[in-house]
Amino acid sequence: MPRLIGQRSNIGANIAVFVIIVATFGVLLEYFGVIHLVPGFGREGRYFQLKSEATNEQVIQ
């Protein structure tokens, strides 16, 4: 049976896993349109519908 007393924890591996998880969630948020950092990346429709704003054509008519 291995002795665990006095063993150092591998903090570098824990940080690497945390960074990968955070990056994955960031890519998913970008893909679904919650955030918009990269133009042209993600789905066609946004995940959350934006309020429709009046365009110049609507104001003139």
Low-confidence segments, given as residue ranges, are none
Largest sheet: none
Q: How does the overall form come out from the CA principal axes?
A: rod-shaped
Percent of residues in helices: 40-55%
Q: Average pLDDT, to the nearest integer? A: 76
- Would you report the number of β strands? 0
Radius of gyration over alpha carbons?
23 Å
Order of helices and strands: HH
Strand content: under 5%
Number of helices: 2
- End-to-end CA span: 82 Å
Class from secondary-structure proportions: mainly alpha
How would you briefly describe this protein structure?
By secondary structure, this protein is mainly α. It is 43% helix and 0% strand. The model has no long low-confidence stretch (mean pLDDT 76).
Q: What are the SSEs and their pairings?
A:
Elements: H1 11-31, H2 56-60
Can you describe this structure?
- The protein has 61 residues and is an all-alpha fold.
- The chain is 43% helix and 0% strand.
- The protein has two helices and no strands.
- It has helices at 11-31, 56-60.
- It is rod-shaped, with a radius of gyration of 23 Å.
- The N and C termini lie far apart (82 Å).
- The model has no long low-confidence stretch (mean pLDDT 76).
Kindly list the characteristics that best describe this protein.
61 residues, mainly alpha
